[in-house]
What does this fold into?
Amino acid sequence: MSLAELRERAFQASLQVKELKEQVLMRRAQLIDSDVASFAQQNDFSTTQLQPHDFVCCRTLQGHTGKVYALDWSQERDRIVSASQDGHLIVWNPLTSQKTHAIKLASSWVITCAFSSDGVAVASGGLDSICSVYVLNTQQEQPISDPKTLHGHKGYISCCKFVPKRDAQILTSSGDGTCALWEVESCQKVSVFGGDSSCGHSADVVSLSVNTKEPHIFVSGSCDRTAKLWDMRTASRATQTFQGHGGDVNTVQFLPDGLCFGTGSDDSTCKIFDTRTGHQLQQYKDSHLSSEGAKVNSIAFSISGRFLLAAYSNADSDCYIWDTLTAEKVGNLKDSPNPHTMPVSCIGLASDGSAVCTASWDRTLKVWASNERETQGVQHDGLRVTITLPLAYKPVYYKKFSLQAGTIKAIDKETTLHAIWTHLRGTSSNGQAFRQVASYRNRATGTAGNI
Amino acid sequence: MGAGCTKVQSQEEAEDAAIKRNMEIEAKREQKVLKLLLLGAGESGKSTIFKQIKVLFQTGFDDPERRSFVPVIHANVYQSIRTLLMGCKEFAEREGESSSKYILLPENQNYGERIAEVESPEGCSLLDEDNALKVQNCWKDPAIQAAYLRGNELQLPDCTEFFLNNVLRLAAQDYIPSQEDILFARQQTTGIVETEFSPDKDPKNKGVCYRLFDVGGQRNERRKWMHLFDGVTAIIFCASLSEYDQTLLEDDKQNRMIETRELLAWLLQQPWFENTSFLVFLNKFDIFQKKALKVPLSACDWFQDYQPLTTNNQEIERAYRYVERKFKKIYEENTAPSNIQRQFRTYRTTAIDEGIIKETFRLVDDALTIQRLIQEMLNVLHVLACSSLEGVFLACEWQRP
It folds into this structure.
């Protein structure tokens, strides 16, 4: 068969594909009868009102000498790692605003970073097309060990994430249009998602999100304006493709329940898609931002999924808080007393949902939470005890404090709530590190968590 | 107990302070380094410039490094001859049954088929003397030579003629690539490579250090990472003069020169490069010299309004000046008239010629020194507008010995 005939056949086939795609879109459009906001309206859900003290900047982390591009919280020990244009990764303790580690990267063009769930390793990736994994040493006399380097991508690494519950594996997405799953210890590629097969992305993949409830499922967002859902067990084809955005899908994030995910795009809108039906559930669009051409840099959901935080790239550095149910804007981080002065590049939610961290081009990171209510403790052995309550915990006033080995027990006479605080750091000598009291357990209600 | 508590606290505070100090020292050091970014479409000569820096301002290539280029050079040879063979086939088909212009001589056909079948250049083993002879015979075949004349329609690497003429030397047992061979060798850049160098001697420039980055030229979404280079001192934009009649590797309907023009315009418009100087290297002048008289400039839509006056060598100079003016126009169209910090220069280069590159970098250094001085002058004027004489002296740091 000659070249000309082959070309003609290829052309006919592509026309057919286009027609079929249009048919699919039409059928989909017929099936969508409503969206989340209309449903909420019919069932009389009202927009949540945020009070000014509900979202306050309680820490500003300074120290980077260049724009901060990415951040990640650790699962267990409440640390934040951030990557910046100055070519360093800095690990912060957000409670004390201190830096615990600063890692100078081999290649200063870093775009993304990630924390492993056990808090022991951090990963970074960037223009050098290599993902480097560094193990953090707890003893400061020893320098940070040489990284494990994962070679193989043919384009820049746009996003990397450790697979939850499987710390030995890391997922990366790259400008060459593929995602890859790696075994960290052996530096081997386990599987590649996309690439030669036409079922993968046709342009740079710029974001990833792994489903925390089912870690073998992840979603990727790409410059080809689609988001694809993948199952790690079948690398040959994507499970589903989600279309609808008018520009690059810059950021994807699963909702905490793992059944839906949100996306943010260069077309100034955020959308929520349902993985079960494959439909778009809701679009979050602000006409003022759209007309400015603001791009969505990053999104994050609150732990209940009720709030969607979206960071935009416009000169005003807007960072909207949307009510996901009613699709109304309920707040803007820019309006708070000391906001970022330049666009926010990344937003991350802490693992227990009590705080949100934003990283910005103004070289700082800010930690936002509900206004701390401090309860002053009793003087005991000359030691002042300050207990700060987490966002998710309603303030209860404690009448009596007692100190026992390594713990503070507080009892409220009226409601007989017992709350036991244990400190996480250092050895167990009494009274130590109460400034860093970090977790609590409420016997009565059974809730527990980190401060 | 209280002491235990403060011990942990003070250790952390000490760590924090140490990290802060180190980062500040690093930042100060980085400010003294002038960053240069090499950009341009694919195959515009960026990597060759990069290699030249190594030769001119650093220690050049040592033996093991040279030997590491042998597989690359052999792969280039195979790729060249293979592209020519495939091209022959395609041209023969288009011509039809009657013409035999692109049919290989019988003794070369067998080898031709074998080479054409191998999927990728890596699939071939290293070039040995036996194979080299066969490759040379193919190269000398009139059909292949005819195909080479239409080389601009194929994706032929620029090293084709040089390597295929020298193929026997390249296949010798104890072959160690010469500097010229290395500069011609073509390997696709992925990721990012960087090198640091200081321009030579000049006592005024004590302590000036340049760091050059080459980011690879293929089509991957530049808009996603270009903001990382916000703050570079200058962009060295490489444009190949000889590509006005060639099409892209990734898209054979797009003319390469038009692509270069689009890229330059896009870069000039980016907000992060508002104060960045653009130094355009109009590269591959040697090939342009041979081509300008044979292939009219109007093969490229951008050069439509070019009217050749004569057909002698002076025409080449005229053609070059025309292209230079066109590039200047793109710069002017995309820069606000009030922007005085940005410098724009064009340089005529032939990346494989050491002397030309050395001279070019001397001129680049001059241009960047001017930029630095303008910057300092602006700082001084700004301070003067605000207040005191003390401020002026503080701003004039560069005058201190």
Q: What stands out?
A: Chain A touches chain B through 51 residues (CB under 8 Å). Residues 372-444 of chain A have pLDDT under 50 and may be disordered. The radius of gyration of chain A is 24 Å. The CA atoms of residues 406 and 427 of chain A lie 9 Å apart.
